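During the no-cost extension, the postdoctoral fellow (Dr. R.K.) reprocessed legacy sequence entries with the updated structure-token encoder. One reprocessed record is reproduced below for audit purposes.
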Amino acid sequence: MNLRIGAFGRQESAAIVLLATFFSGCFAVDSRALYEYGNASYLVEIVSVIQALLLFEIVIWTLRVRGGSDLSALIGQSRMKEALTVPLILALIIAAMQPLQSFLLTITQYVFVESKHATVCLYLLPCLFLLTALGAETLVRTARILLPILLLSIVAALVSGIGQYRMYRIYPIPIGEPLRIFTQAGSAQMRTVPPLLALLCIGEGTQDRFAMRSSGRIGAIAGGLLCTAALFALSMTFPYSQLKGMPTPFYRMLVEVRAENPTLRLDRAVLFLWLSGAILTSAYYLYAACVLFCKTFGVRDARPAALCLCGIAVTLILVLYYDAEATVAILHSLYRDAWMLIAVPIPLILLNLKRRKPKCAVSA
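Re-encoded structure tokens follow.
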């Protein structure tokens, strides 16, 4: 099968998980739901990453017990593999769509003000398809190359906003309602689980299960801590009542820094750096969905499936853009309920594994 997975090491796979965790956690946020009861976004991120890591460890343990190199090996042993694969593919497509949707809204609002959304969106389709069609090795090695400059830009953004930070803005913190924080963390699984789910889908390219487990841990923890720091910085920059209506508050923080200090004109350059990270994250999710589709349904070439999935993601973004009221309602529903596309199939896959046939005794 021409799935173009290739081979890569721990550093590359940890880099792609780190970037995907940060960009999904920081730029695929439903601000209206996250800040509805106060300012606990950074606490929600920590709890959500812990939940995602627990699910990841359970799948890795099952792979070790049952044998197999990736999630497709477990799905192949399940009794309802086709029915359980489709929700996971939909979840990865939605996860790929969310950061691009946020960045396109930001670009048309702050940079190319007179440009149409469809015009900007069509420029992204070739980039998405090229990265997705080239395969896992290209994706993870590109992430390893871009990681230092993206980390530098994120740290520079956090440092440049120090003059805007005020501790009193982090209140109110709903710390007295832990059940609400856990509920919000459950809804945030669409931001923290897809990076690890995609790694499980392309696990065949890692050295072994232990390398996949360690790279997933490192990437998820480092990306979660970086995202937590960014969300905490946002909490000190804006009151939660303002954060409710912002599509990309982390970029808005850079705009506020430029307004206070015109010499620090980081916003436009950093925006396009972050856009490259978002495209890489979306291509990573779409390629994982492509591998899952090809292995489950027996498609031998990944490139036609990659083109179809990229077209579906871009089309959904365009359809959502043309009706503003419907877009807000649909996106809010996706952020709130789409986590069930992952939370339901994974346990069913683990519970519906076929029993292994006992080995026949060898006669003397």
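The two ends are 41 Å apart (CA to CA). The chain has a mean pLDDT of 82. The remaining legacy entries will be reprocessed before the final report is submitted.
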